[in-house]
Amino acid sequence: MTGLDLDIRHDRAGFALSVRADLPASGLTAVFGPSGAGKSTLLRLVAGFERAEGRIAFGGEVWSDAGHFVPPHRRRVASVFQEPRLFAHLDVRGNLAYAARRSGAEIAPVVRDLGLEPLLARRTAGLSGGEAQRVALARALLTRPRLILMDEPLAALDQTRRAEILPVVEDLRDRLGLPILYVSHSVGEVARLATHVLALAEGRLASFGPAEEVFADSAAAAAFGGEEPGSLIAARIIGMTGDGLCRLGFPGGEILSPEPLGPPGTDVRVFVRARDVMIALPRPEALSALNVLPAIVRGVVAAGPAACDVTLDLGGSMVRSRVTLRSVRALDLVPGRACHAILKSVALARE
Amino acid sequence: MSLADLTPFWLTLRLAGLVTAILMLVATPLAWWLAHSRSRLRPLVEAVTALPLVLPPTVLGFYLLVALNPSTPLGGLWMAATGTSLTFSFAGLVVASLIYSLPFAVQPLQAAFAEVGRKPIEAAASCGASPLDAFLSVGIPLARRGYLAAAVLSFAHTLGEFGVVLMVGGNIPGQTKTIAIAIYERVEVLDYPAAHGMSALLVALSFVALYLLFRTNRREARG
């Protein structure tokens, strides 16, 4: 089955968006980039709220091209926005019924899954941000969508509420297998949620592919903007060391994490910030950092007047390192050079 | 007040009620378009719609008198269809009042639709609602305060109109003699007690309508 095929151009008020990508039919594709990159516009075009030049197709069905336009209500695309956009004249039950009546979906299972029973009779105005967003997610599911669009659904929530909603989004991705297009400018969210990443910068596609590849792609640097770049490493938990460290195996070797990340055999993804990766030529001795791994330099790109991003190959996993231009010259870091990567800290991105 | 004095009163209520009902239907699509259109025609349509607000009623009444008389296409069509003249008739009053009170229906609705905005409509479309469905099930309910204001203002404005009615309708008892005309007529013959009675009735009626409007608005605002 094919997913969302995009080949679009959209010019409006001095802003041009141009994207060509074939998105997968399942998993969560993060649309990532700084504000003004065109992320929300892209979502509005996919939803059908605005019309683009070019072509949008989903599962082989053309939604928009030169002579053809499927209106939003016939696309079976659910949208979840930054603000929940619940219908103020209806209570929670009414909001859910609004979607269910038009799709034939059953309300009860969704209400149970999202724990909404206590809210059903409430007015939408009295809901907290997290509650309202849960209702909005439920309403989106009750449209029986083929594709879910989420436009920074966590941006208006505080840390605690985010922690409530994130697992719900992960559940949608994994249990329902629905393709999700998820707009975010948070590296943390993208690292945790995304199976694929579509990196946008100034209306152009900077990089697109599986999350690990895009995070390692120096072409995606523009999409990171002021956000701190980093890399994702897919690994599997091997077990614990005698002194309480968690052992993670991946093709590039073994990583130790002071955090207990899960039972052995669990597939995890860890996030390493580029500035937490140091480079040494001979293997350094007597170092406090635990994770020193052999690596090969694959690329070097400028990241500011005095800094560079060095892409390191750790047994097939690409990891970015943010170092100074001076270090690049001093160590003569050119593609093909063998060295050692020192990972100062790693964080769990996703189970 | 004698029973005869109530005829203008009932006539006026009938006129205002009918005009308000028709205006809600006519003003809804117009206000919706004005609230959402990006067309260059919009300011033009807005200006035309607002004209009755600034024109002296006699000017409006004069042009309506000219436009509705049986020698014009519209007046002729009406004459052919009903055998009566649009001018100096109740039907003519309804047409004139529709135009005269149009801005009082359109402007509150336009403001209400603009306040509702596109977001709830887009949310409705995401839920599978067609544009008409979304408008009926989300747009109108969310704009209900605008409807209340539009209805009350159109009704009250039609209730009190004088100049246009006099120009287009004249002063035919039971046909075009509205309460405002009747009061004027009583005053001309120095029948102050009758003028008092009808005026007081109009004041009371208008006050009650506005009071109910503001009270409902307050309740809505408190939610």
Automatic annotation (TrEMBL), chain A:
For this protein, the record's Gene3D superfamilies field holds: 2.40.50.100, P-loop containing nucleotide triphosphate hydrolases (3.40.50.300)
Q: Where is each ABC transporter domain found? A: 1-227
**Alphabetical list of SUPFAM superfamilies matching this protein:** MOP-like, P-loop containing nucleoside triphosphate hydrolases
Molecular function per GO:
ATP binding
Q: Does the keyword Cell division apply?
A: no
Claim: Glycoprotein is one of the keywords in the record: no
Domain named Mop is located at 286-351
Query: What keywords is this UniProt entry annotated with?
Result: ATP-binding, Cell inner membrane, Cell membrane, Membrane, Molybdenum, Nucleotide-binding, Translocase, Transport
NCBIfam families given in the database record: modC_ABC
- Name listed for the protein in its UniProt record: Molybdenum ABC transporter ATP-binding protein
List the source organism: Albidovulum sediminicola
TrEMBL record, chain B:
Instruction: Check the record and name the PROSITE patterns matching this protein.
Output: ABC_TM1
Domain ABC transmembrane type-1, residue spans: 9-213
Instruction: Give the location in the cell.
Output: Cell inner membrane; Cell membrane
Q: Which UniProt keywords apply?
A: Cell inner membrane, Cell membrane, Membrane, Molybdenum, Transmembrane, Transmembrane helix, Transport
| TM annotation in the entry | 12-35, 47-66, 78-100, 147-168, 194-214
The membrane topology noted for this protein in its Swiss-Prot or TrEMBL record is: Multi-pass membrane protein
Cross-referenced NCBIfam families: modB_ABC
So what does this one do? Answer: Part of the binding-protein-dependent transport system for molybdenum; probably responsible for the translocation of the substrate across the membrane.
State the family named in the UniProt similarity comment for this chain.
Answer: Belongs to the binding-protein-dependent transport system permease family. CysTW subfamily.
Output this protein's name: Molybdenum transport system permease
Annotated source species:
Albidovulum sediminicola
Q: What lineage, starting at the top, does this entry show?
A: Bacteria, Pseudomonadati, Pseudomonadota, Alphaproteobacteria, Rhodobacterales
What's the encoding gene here? Answer: modB
